[in-house]
Amino acid sequence: MKAHQIAQGAEAIILQEKSLIKKQRIPKSYRIPELDNKIRKARTKIEAKLLEKASKLIPVPKVIKVDDATKEIVMEHIDGKKLSQYLDKFSEKEQIKICKQIGNNVAKLHDAEIIHGDLTTSNMILVENNVDNKIKNATTLNLQNQDNISNISCGWVGGDKTPSAKRHSSKVFFIDFGLGFHSKKPEDKAVDLHVLKEALEAKHFQHWERLFKAVIEGYKISKHHESTLARLKVVEQRGRYKDKY
Which of 105, 111, 119, 202 is spaced 20 to 30 A from 186 at the CA atom? Predict the structure, then answer.
């Protein structure tokens, strides 16, 4: 099966080949070719390392390999539902549950000094327990037999079933760490949360305040949540000041 493009952003194109995803960084014509090559290679490596580190903490796609020549990351294709398209279809109870899980995930990343850089529900995939088990089984098989890597039974974005209110074991996978970096600064962690708040307000405007409150409740498992949330208030005030002028 030939790889086909399923998405494109400012920095990369996303290709799907069988049960794998390939993320290739796009060359920038405005940069000197040698410099562009160096930057894309470095950013590809950074993103792969962030994914590998994050995989020990929260659900993320597993990295299969990194290709320096093509500036490409090959990873598992998580079979779930893009949260930006489905969050509003759940009951209020389920939405709160999902958003608390999101807060938990962000807290775990921040405690490990990982800044996602683009926290939006478009970069989150909701996976049901039965699908998650398939991913685990496929990963086990992959580790046992590297030659059967193309037979991994999982996906990154897909499925169109109506969400069920009985998903008590659903997991939220974070994807696209292309703008991510390492930092221990409360400012960077606060900005990460602020980006998520703005994304909820824009995409889920009817009840974004309730959703973000649930995110913050989940985030409070962080060892440093007090300093980060205090800094978040400063970041928000700064944003309001800019809007005023």
Answer: 202
CATH number among 1.10.510.10, 2.40.50.320, 3.40.50.10140, 3.40.50.880, domain 81-128+162-244: 1.10.510.10
Give the count of beta carbons closer than 10 Å to the beta carbon of residue 190.
21
The secondary structure of residue 113, as a DSSP letter, is T
Tell me the backbone φ, ψ of residue 185, rounded to 5 degrees.
Answer: -75, 130
In degrees and rounded to multiples of 5, residue 189 shows phi and psi of -65, -40
What residues act catalytically?
A: 118
Looking at residue 142, what is its pLDDT?
47
Question: Residue 10, Cβ neighbours under 10 Å: how many?
Answer: 7
Instruction: State pLDDT tens for residues 118-170.
Output: 999 999 999 977 544 444 444 444 444 444 333 323 333 433 444 444 444 78
Q: How far apart are CA 207 and CA 6, in angstroms?
A: 30
